[in-house]
Design goal:
Elements (H helix, E strand, L loop, with lengths): L1 H12 L5 E2 L4 E3 L18 H17 L3 E14 L4 E14 L8 H8 L12 H11 L5 H18 L7 E12 L12 E6 L3 E4 L8 H16 L13 H10 L36 H11 L24 H11 L4 E2 L10 E3 L5 E7 L4 E5 L4 E5 L7 E4 L2
Antiparallel strand pairs: 1-3, 2-3, 3-4, 4-5, 5-6, 6-7, 8-13, 9-10, 9-13, 10-11, 11-12
Helix pairs in contact: 3-6, 4-5, 7-8
Length: 394
Amino acid sequence: MVAVLCLALLVLSGCSATLSGNTTVWHSSTAEGGGTQSNQPIVQTPRGTLKQYVNDTYKRNYETFYEVDDVSLTFVSENTKNNVYTATVLMRVVKTLKYETVDELPFIRGALSALGLQTYPYSQAEEQKVQLIKQKNKDLPASKVTNVVTYLDRTYDELTRYIGKSYDSYLFMYVTAPLTASLTIDSNSLKVLVEQPQYQRIELKDFKPLPAQTMYDLGKQSMQRVLNGTSVPMKKTYYDPWKVVQYADKYTSNATTMCPGTTIANDKSKWNNQQWPYYDFLCSTDCADFASQALNYAGLPVEPGKWQRLKDSSNGWAWTRSSGLRRYLLQQKKVARSVKSWEIRAGGIMMADKGHTMIVVRNDTIEILTDAHTNDRYHEPVLPQDNWYYLNSW
């Protein structure tokens, strides 16, 4: 009898008991369930229950700040052994900021409040911006006025690119739930863990942006750091942050194949093997190598013996080791500066405390997206931690 029920379940769900590399996609608008007559109760398949739970939970966490246009799930693997449902799922979300102007973002409202402003005339001439800052902050020295304008201009340059434009992000999720006697699952028993760097996992219900008030406070702190000279924008940029983003987006993926003998995902067919040849030993240790490639593409030149792929051992492997790369950028070349987690910008580098390097490809002040290798990841949202390192190109 159990075998018959299992077979019925698999027919309803359209999948085998164990799936690997399955590209079946469920969208938030897809109808689910069994029952062929309108007066019969709808029986949710495990996939249907999971999809509904993920859709509802994600929207509850994010709809304060975004219009969530679509949530879709790609099932990488699935299993129903020992009366337990397990699955690995890649979630794709398409969403758009609800804010119509940069000035409305909570973080920016906080930053402007530190200056006594409600709006910033980003599109006006620099002289007009300077006069406005001076008018509201009469005792502020000219050098700090310049720092404020530089900070706001560069921040607005990024954020104006995001207003009114949808974008996609991806999260790997790991699912477990006991099967009921009818081979369904109860949403109350679902455990959905979201992948984060260095093999950490966070429950989906807890994976959400900071409260708006906290964002406001952080924006105010950020501007105060500029005003008191703690955080000073660099006078010039040494590489193009948007080319860092462009390179990162082109040469990574949300891989599900593993480096031999490891649990680290990569897809070397997506790497830039023509310019930077693939080597087996880099399969599971190439996060800094990937970041260095992007920085080089963005305009930072190779420095023989100092910052040169596999030829800079005397300089702490600055190209391929996170600690060496961080020292090279901050202390030796001084082409980047250290910032707080909430100040990181697109084209910046995030380094976890245990050495993992990620490229920031978007920070709209609410969500930070990263591209990385080790694991190969594309547009993965990351919740930053205070003990990590954050490097901006300006």
